[in-house]
Please model this.
Amino acid sequence: MKKIGILFGQENTFPQAFVEAVKNKNEKGITAEFVSINKVAQAEPLDYAVIIDRISQDVPFYRAALKNAAICGTAVINNPFWWSADEKFFNNALAVKIGVPVPKTVILPSKELPDDTSDLSFRNLAYPLDWQGIFDYVGFPAYMKPFDGGGWKEVYKLHDADDFFDKYDQTKQYVMMLQEEVVFDDYFRCYCIGGKHVRIMQYEPRNPHHLRYEHGKAPAAKKLLDQVSKYVIQLNQYLGYDFNTVEFAVRNGIPYAIDFCNPAPDADVNSVGQANFDWVVETAASYAIERAKAQKPDRDNLTWGQFIKSAVSATPLVAAAPKKMPAKASAKEVKPKKAITKK
Model:
């Protein structure tokens, strides 16, 4: 009997529905349950052919346990090794290289020094940074948000340089991204499962959280939806995510990928709505069964994205020509209110 397990935290609708959906398919030799862990010993397997991971981003113990399970043959959805390595700024760089439109974005050092470092740890960092060049490249209004993590935490809308420095002073040890604002005509949030199954949901991020799937707009044109679907599949196949969401802001008919590092995306019926919930439950269950049938003990059963495969085979990515930052500031240098805080 091959077991499919789901590892989760505070969720109370998707995990239960997922287990029931797998069981209701009555696939011979396959069952599903909530993951139960009472011991993790090195190089010893957990008793699961497949594990759907919904919580290890918040629980390091689970991430380590899943890596151990993977090396013993469990097909973990999503790949815990890649999930540990990935972050939003890299995702944007990858999108540029494969020709998916994204907002102009730069990464910033943390305002405060990380623990156990001093100013000597940053001797390779120019001071001051080329603030004017950065602002010329990104423009205002802009958004500043952590380069890793999600949930709309520590996200700031910035109107000018003074506003930037005021908010930047509040970001503590977070490594932040400064990103061009895309004033959008339409917006989509898209599930992608198995790198091939796509559910496009019109979405309004400016609404209160419980109303974001109630956008009130007419359905989008098929040509635009086809382009969005193509980009969703392309991004997830290059990243190697089995279960992810991608968000697009549409400006002048062009869909810009805004956020596509959501490997444990919201799948609660109370927020995504019944129709979207039913799709994600059914599709995830069918995909998990597919992976369980293909799983072979004591082998690597993980999904590895095209970026990793290209690196191993020394095959170049499909290159796009990114817009470059100005080599020099085009105006008088803007001085920060404070230097990066020194201990």
